[in-house]
Design a protein that fits this description.
The structure holds two protein chains of two kinds.
Chain A: H1 2-18, H2 33-43, H3 45-63, H4 66-69, H5 73-79, H6 82-96, H7 104-121, H8 127-152, H9 156-175, H10 187-192, E1 196-197, E2 200-201, H11 202-220, H12 222-232, H13 234-240, H14 244-270, H15 281-291, H16 303-322, H17 327-369
Antiparallel strand pairs in A: 1-2
Chain B: E1 8-17, E2 20-30, E3 34-39, H1 46-54, E4 61-66, E5 69-70, H2 76-81, E6 84-87, H3 99-104, H4 118-132, H5 147-161, E7 165-169, H6 177-192, E8 196-200, H7 204-210, E9 213-218, E10 221-227, H8 233-241, H9 245-248, E11 259-268, E12 272-280, E13 284-289, H10 295-303, E14 310-315, E15 318-320, H11 325-331, E16 333-336, H12 340-344, H13 351-356, H14 360-363, H15 371-384, H16 401-413, E17 419-423, H17 431-446, E18 450-454, H18 458-464, E19 467-472, E20 475-481, H19 487-495
Parallel strand pairs in B: 3-8, 3-9, 6-7, 7-8, 13-18, 13-19, 16-17, 17-18
Antiparallel strand pairs in B: 1-2, 1-4, 4-5, 9-10, 11-12, 11-14, 14-15, 19-20
The chains are: A mainly alpha, B alpha/beta.
Chain lengths: 370, 502
């Protein structure tokens, strides 16, 4: 019976040599680290979304070369998605824990208006202080969400839907019909909205720094990995003794703080803020995260994917008119993209599960004969 | 044993969930450097006891000592910090994460700047796996691992935790002989290192091979602790079963008629394999086996809730198509799931509404369903089952577990089925009402209904079933007639440690 097992082992080794792509999932992989990294990247969801993005940009540029090479083409390509990228990063962290934050649009509106008010009420206030205020205000609103969800045992969907209206109500009461205009804010602040460093917009750099910091944390810190574990199986996370409540609260604080930062960025970018700033953008953020390959039930996906998803969403919306697609189809296409990525997720997950189970069944049958 | 404090000691620990008492008086004493067995039937309170130690449940009363110091865990994190590792009956892994991350979650090796040192983590995982004598890719996700491999991951986790108390709740239930030997080698090594191990198992040969002492539990209470050297299988079984089986199970003989349900070669990859059996009119067939053996999965596939890869289901001579519970209901099949609160009952609705739920289509006039019509349809059934509710308008939520179960049964009887599949008919029901549910099942069989009863409670299976089918690891390993069924041969077939001839 030992003979059978050994023979089986040889066969599997043999097939591995023939085709490195059918990795042996049962025994340790013998691929070289470089090859493994290459495989991981090429097969990742992020990579395929990136390909789609490049395709969209190439198609738009072919039909109108100004899309990239025109006066502000390159700048706008990077600048326009920056706001959504910031929101998507925060949203991705929350969704990875099997929650959702629908209040980010209202938080954005709140801090955007706060930014304008600070400049009006305290002339000469340093810009970094305003940014800090936006971050802290957003974090505080996120903390409210997190505490309600962590202690209230009510689904995040319901809680943040509630705070979406409450936070917006606060902005409406506070702002009334007032409007912040570009002239209310210092020029240096407004210029930040379009400024570039080495032809790269400053706001894009801000989003990039946030993305890299959060992505690095999720990948390499114990706390970051725990967020994945919590989303993968919340009950198992409790049995593991992970600090589930604390982690979920901090995910919402992060999402709130990033939405708060986005509010400040929003004010700098558009110069005018009304009480309805950011209305409905939370759904775009969720869409970007889903398109970027973060599983809506948590546990898998990356902020890199969410960020690429955000850029893709914004870029498609800008590219479609250029290639002459009518308004209705623009919306429908975004919808199709979301449905497509969810279907793709399911298909890939099912296929992977079946492959893993199949490998085990084969093993079990040989084990039974042995 | 010495007089010094035991590594782990529980004295008269109690725990209730609502009105159901899970643990009446649980006691356990595990010494450092020894392996302590814990045996008892399903529902004897072993798992509850384990969860109290693990910090999942907080005990209602009794003493809990670690190395002689009174202890009280409010969370699993506290129990883990105190050096207690628990391997649960059903492994608790994060399917999306790599097996290595599953082992080290929350305490990954960190390098400069508290960043996770992945290389070190993978090396450590490979070292753990080779120490356990298994070959698992440390980078693969936990998704799709067999139960045996999942157990290995849990064990690797416990070893890397350097726990001083290791509790294993039926770790061998899904393991093959080779895998069990491997586990035992590890367990003995851990014992020789001076740790205290608690080993829960249904397989007596394993208890005798591995343990130094053994504690028997029954009905949530401590019965006895024996040294393995001074006892034998018969003594343990007697202590475990230890009650009059007859009273609780008023089984009246029924005339067995034609086959109602025929299942042929039913298979589903990774879940169950080549399952064939039949249930006749008037017959109660008990589906016995360990938790996780695949009994409920077979039932769900027969009823059409879950898909299957091969095989067919025939009801009353006609094939029932897969994946269509609606057709199965119309063909005369009724299915009462294990978790009635979640799957069988609308707890916020009235009794009448619940009873009438499945036959709504028949009751509706021009698509409109009136409360009066529901009450009319429900009244005879509820009356027949002696559901104790003052009015049919009472909310099902406020009823006891036994009465809820009767409402669910009434609901399905209203469809006038030929076959009733019932999963764990008396789970969470107090002893008095249990007998009532049993009497009801017996009566129904007497009226010619074919009943397929899944139960983890051995006395229930033995007391109620005309025939016992034993499922082990997704296969039917024994078909035993009522007269020949004993706790021993069912248990042995369920663990496949002995060949059973019926």
């Amino acid at each position: 019976m030992i003979g059978i097992r050994e023979k089986d082992h040889q066969v599997s080794e043999h097939t591995e040599h023939l085709d490195a792509s059918t990795e042996q999932l049962v025994a340790p992989s013998r691929l070289s680290p470089g090859r493994r990294a290459f495989n991981t990247i090429v097969r990742s969801r992020e990579f395929s979304i990136l390909l789609v993005l490049i395709l969209v940009i190439v198609a738009a540029t072919i039909s109108s070369s100004s899309f990239v090479f025109g006066g502000n083409g390159w700048r706008d390509l990077l600048l326009t998605p920056s706001i959504l990228v910031l929101l998507a990063v925060g949203q991705a962290v929350v969704i990875i824990t099997r929650n959702v934050d629908l209040s980010v649009g209202s938080v954005l509106g709140f801090t955007a208006y706060l930014t304008g008010r600070l400049f009006i009420d305290h002339p000469g206030i340093p810009i970094p202080l305003v940014v800090l205020a936006g971050l802290l205000a957003g974090a505080a609103l996120g903390l409210v969400n997190g505490v309600l969800i962590g202690f209230g045992r009510v689904p995040a969907l319901v809680i943040t839907l509630g705070t979406l209206y409450i936070y917006r109500g606060v902005v409406l009461t506070w702002a009334g019909s007032n409007r912040i205009n570009a002239s209310d804010m210092p020029n240096s602040f407004g210029e930040l909205g379009t400024a570039t460093v080495l032809s790269i917009p400053v706001l894009f750099l801000v989003a990039l720094v946030v993305l890299i910091a959060v992505g690095y944390y999720l990948q390499t810190a114990r706390g970051g990995r725990q967020l994945y574990a919590i989303g993968s199986d919340p009950d198992a996370a409790v049995l593991y003794g992970l600090p589930v409540r604390r982690r979920i609260i901090s995910a919402f604080v992060l999402s709130g703080a990033l939405a708060g930062l986005t509010g400040v960025v929003f004010a700098a970018r558009y110069g005018s803020v009304s009480s309805s700033a950011g209305t409905g953008i939370e759904l775009q953020a969720v869409a970007a995260v889903v398109i970027g390959g973060v599983a809506i039930f948590g546990g898998s996906g990356t902020v890199w994917g969410a960020a690429i998803g955000a850029v893709l969403l914004v870029t498609i919306n800008r590219a479609l008119p250029t290639v002459g697609i009518p308004d209705f189809w623009q919306q429908a296409l975004v919808g199709a993209l979301i449905l497509g990525s969810i279907v793709l997720d399911r298909v890939l997950a099912n296929r992977r599960a079946r492959r893993l189970i199949g490998a085990r069944d084969n093993e079990a049958t040989t084990g039974a004969t042995a | 044993m010495t007089d010094t404090a035991a590594a782990l000691e529980l004295r008269d620990v109690t725990k209730s969930f609502g009105s159901v008492v899970a643990l009446r008086s649980g006691s356990l004493r595990a010494e450092a450097g020894s392996i302590h067995g814990l045996v008892g039937e399903n529902g004897a309170g072993k798992s509850t006891l384990v969860k109290v130690v693990a910090g999942v449940h907080r005990r209602d009363g009794g003493e809990f000592l670690l190395d002689g110091d009174p202890t009280d865990f409010a969370s699993t994190a506290e129990s883990k910090a105190a050096g207690i590792a628990v391997i649960y009956q059903e492994p608790t892994l994060f399917p999306d994460l790599s097996v290595t991350e599953n082992i080290f979650m929350g305490r990954q090796p960190v390098g400069r700047g508290r960043r996770i040192d992945r290389a070190a983590m993978y090396d450590e995982a490979e070292r753990l796996f080779s120490g356990l004598g298994v070959s698992i890719d440390p980078r693969r996700p936990a998704l799709g691992l067999s139960i045996a491999d999942q157990q290995i991951i849990e064990i690797a986790k416990a070893i890397s935790l350097d726990a001083r108390v290791l509790i294993m709740d039926e770790p061998t239930a899904a393991l093959s002989g080779v895998e069990v030997e491997r586990l035992f080698t590890v367990a003995r090594r851990l014992r020789d290192e001076g740790r205290a191990l608690v080993f829960i198992s249904h397989r007596f040969d394993e208890v005798f091979a591995l343990c130094d002492t053994v504690t028997v539990m029954r009905d949530g209470s401590y019965i006895d602790t024996l040294s393995i050297a001074d006892t034998d299988v018969d003594t343990l079984v007697a202590l475990m079963v230890g009650r009059e089986v007859g009273d609780l199970f008023p089984k009246t003989p029924a005339t067995i008629g034609e086959p109602v349900l025929q299942v042929e070669g039913l298979s589903s990859a990774g879940v169950f394999h080549d399952v064939s059996f039949e249930v006749r009119a008037g017959e109660i067939v008990g589906l016995a086996g360990l938790v996780g053996a695949g009994r409920s999965e077979v039932a769900r596939a027969v009823f059409g809730v879950d898909a299957y890869d091969a095989g067919r289901v025939v009801l009353g001579g006609k094939a029932v198509p897969p994946r269509s519970p609606n057709v199965a209901i119309r063909a005369g099949m009724a299915f009462i799931p294990e978790d009635r609160r979640q799957q069988g009952l609308v707890t916020e609705a009235s009794v009448a509404h619940n009873v009438a739920a499945v036959i709504r289509g028949k009751l509706a006039r021009a698509g409109i369903l009136t409360r009066a019509a529901e009450n009319r349809a429900a009244a005879p059934w509820a009356g027949r089952l002696e559901v104790k509710t003052s009015a049919l308008d009472m909310d099902a939520r406020t009823m006891s577990g036994g009465n809820q179960q009767k409402v669910v049964i009434a609901k399905w009887l209203a469809t006038e089925p030929k076959l009733l599949i019932i999963d764990e008919p008396t789970r969470g029901i107090d002893v008095g009402t249990k007998a009532e549910v049993h009497r009801l099942l017996s009566e129904l069989a007497g009226q010619g209904l074919a009943i397929l009863m899944i139960s983890s409670e051995l006395p229930e299976v033995l007391g109620m079933a005309d025939r016992v089918l034993v499922v082990c690891e997704g296969r039917i390993t024994a078909d035993i007639a009522r007269d020949e069924a004993t706790p021993e041969n069912v248990m042995f077939a369920a663990t496949r440690t002995h060949e059973v001839t019926a």
